[in-house]
Task: inverse folding
């Protein structure tokens, strides 16, 4: 009986997990070639780690954990700024969904049927999306605390 309950508990937790599958960061580096026309991955020291020094879209360094529409000195559309102002921060699953259809994602997340995205590119291939998200997740330290929040204590987990 105990074995059956344990198996049931494990099965339940697997089924309750998000349907997002982790991608292959190395393969994602190749997929990022499709993104570099508009985006760059550039660290705080100014080193370009991926892509070119493109400025059509925001720098994607540290995108995972970053508040949506909040990269400094980038002019975002109203819908993504409003989403971020509501406290939304990027995680891998949401970034994957955004890349599939940015406007639909913003409409669904915000509840605003008129929400728009300045990003018109859609990455339709599910495997490519998972891979490029895994690639982007390799860049950047944990997100800086929001204004008014304390930074985690040394050695304290940030997620």
Result:
């Amino acid at each position: 009986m105990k074995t059956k309950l344990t198996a049931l508990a494990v099965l339940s937790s697997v089924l309750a997990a998000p349907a997002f599958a982790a991608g292959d960061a190395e393969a994602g580096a190749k997929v990022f070639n499709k993104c570099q026309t508009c985006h760059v991955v550039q660290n705080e020291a100014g080193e370009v780690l991926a892509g070119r020094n493109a400025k059509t879209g925001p720098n994607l360094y540290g995108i995972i954990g970053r508040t949506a529409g909040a990269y400094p000195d980038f002019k975002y559309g109203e819908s993504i700024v409003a989403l971020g102002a509501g406290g939304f921060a990027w995680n891998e699953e949401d970034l994957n969904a955004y890349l599939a259809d940015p406007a639909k994602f913003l409409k669904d997340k915000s509840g605003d049927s008129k929400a728009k995205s300045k990003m018109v590119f859609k990455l339709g291939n599910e495997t490519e999306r998972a891979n490029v998200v895994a690639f982007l997740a390799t860049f950047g330290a944990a997100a800086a605390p929001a204004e008014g929040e304390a930074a985690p204590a040394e050695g304290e987990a940030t997620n």
